[in-house]
Amino acid sequence: MTNVIKVASCISVSFALLLLVDGAKGQLAGCQGVINVQDQSDISQLGGCTSFTGTIAITGTNLRSLSIPKIQTLHGTFTVQNNLSLVSLSLPDLKSASNLVFAQNKALSAIDVPGLKTVTTFNVNSAPSLRVLSFPAGLNSIENFELSDTAIGLMKGIDASRVGSLLLSRNENLKSLTLPNLLSAESLEMIGNGRGNFQFEANNLNSLGQGNFKNLASTALPSLNKVTSGLSYTENSFTTLSLPKLSEVGSTLTISSNPQLKSTSFPELSHIGEDLIIGNNQNLVTIDGFDKLDQIEGKAQLSGDFSTTLFPSLDTVGRGLNVESSSSSIRCNGFDKLRVGGAKVNNVDCSLSAGKKDPSSMQENKTNSNDDSNKAKSTNNSTISDTQEPASDNKQDVHSEAKQQQHDAHIMNGANKNYLFEHVKMIFGVFVALCSLELALVL
Q1: Is 360 buried (19+), middle (13-18) or exposed (0-12) by CB count in 10 A?
Q2: What is the DSSP letter of 303?
Q3: What are the pLDDT digits (tens) for 172-191?
Q4: How far apart (Å, rounded) are the C-alpha atoms in residues 21 and 19?
Q5: Which interval of the chain is the signal sequence (predicted)?
Q6: Among 208, 204, 167, which residue's Cα sits nearest to residue 186?
């Protein structure tokens, strides 16, 4: 009787291990890989997963709504694309994600991510029915954020202190965006939002890689100190442009085709790494507000209807100065210290143009500068450009290495899970063998 009990116990343990093996196998398979969703039932492949690694694609379906509960972390890509009937999508438990992409979903009016705090890439484009986008938990970590061609009129909950790239373009109902917590950004692009009435504020932004601002009614960046690449303001409707703390622009500063602009103020700006381009600002009659600017490494191109230019501290222009105005009372002063390409300039040649000219079409140099010095400076610039290329390559290498490490981590994670599965299976085999031996002894 005792032996029978032992055999029964052994069989029970083996059966339990079998269930464990099957469960583990199902769980491991369901929490990584590729899932193509066509209806709500396909979400069952996720089982009870709270974390998923791989790709979830919701493409070209007839779904009207979709909810994906339980998932808290997404490693990989989550794509929702070309779903013409999809009205709402909910990820109620999601807290962190690598890549969330929503594209060409014409009827989509609600993206529900109440718990999302961290995302690498968040991309919404061609969503003409989407009017509100909010992050109730506070989106405090963003690498790349893009919002294009939507009907969004209200966006809130972006609390990040740093962003990689932030692009807002052609969102006709979006009238304003305020980012009070933003301290640094690699790229900010605001283009064609709010039908030209868009207002942007980032009052604590200190450092910026590059900025492109177009079709704005107002902008406020009172704390911005340094721009490492280029900064451009074109086709805006504001009357004043002021960056009170900006001290350096690493590449080109462009202020062009702003028809209502009347004044500029850059009181701390001392250095421009490439060109200064100011042109076709019809109401800008005096170009001033650059009291400390002493060095422009590239060209200075000034054109428009202005009558006065004031650059009291400008000492060096690397590759030429061009001043052209359609005003009959043009006066060039404030260039007393100026050297162009290393050569002292005694008189700046201010040309009276017959009409407005695009700054990009102007000649490089209309001053009596030293040609050899210009060539030397140009050669030096080329050398600097050449030495900067490896740095870009290094960034790409570091980025590729990071992606490879992430990929390797995912593979290692899968390998560990497979090892666990094989280990449990081996234990199951041992128990079955022992049970068989026990049964043989009883018989």
Answers
A1: exposed
A2: E
A3: 999 999 999 999 999 999 99
A4: 5
A5: 1-26
A6: 208
Going by pLDDT thresholds of 50, 70 and 90, the confidence category of residue 409 is: very low
Is residue 154 within 8 Å of 176, Cβ to Cβ? no
Three-state SS annotation for 92-139? CCCCEEEEEEEECCCCCCEEECCCCCEEEEEEEEEECCCCEEEEEEEE
Amino acid at 248: E
Question: What H or E segment, with its residue span, contains residue 23?
Answer: helix 2-30
Q: How do 308-309 and 350-352 pair as beta strands? A: unpaired
Single pTM value for the model: 0.75
Of residues 6 and 203, more confidently modeled:
203
Q: What is the phi/psi pair of residue 356, to 5°? A: -70, 145
Domain ranges of the chain: 270-386
Beta strands in 207-318 (DSSP E): 207-214, 216-220, 226-227, 231-234, 240-242, 248-249, 253-256, 263-265, 271-272, 276-279, 286-287, 295-296, 300-304, 308-309, 316-317
Amino acid at 408: D
Residue type, 281: N
CA dist 166 and 142 (Å) reads 9
CB 58 within 8 A of CB 40: no
| Contact criterion met (CB below 8 Å) for 186 and 209 | yes
| 165: DSSP letter | E
Tally DSSP H helices, then E strands, for the chain.
2, 35
Q: Read out DSSP for 306-348?
A: -SEE--TT--EESS-EEEEES-TT-EE-S-TT-EETTEE-SS-
The amino acid present at 317, given as its one-letter code, is V
| Residue 90 DSSP symbol | E
Distances (CA, A) of 350 to 209, 239, 301, 304, 307: 33, 25, 11, 12, 10
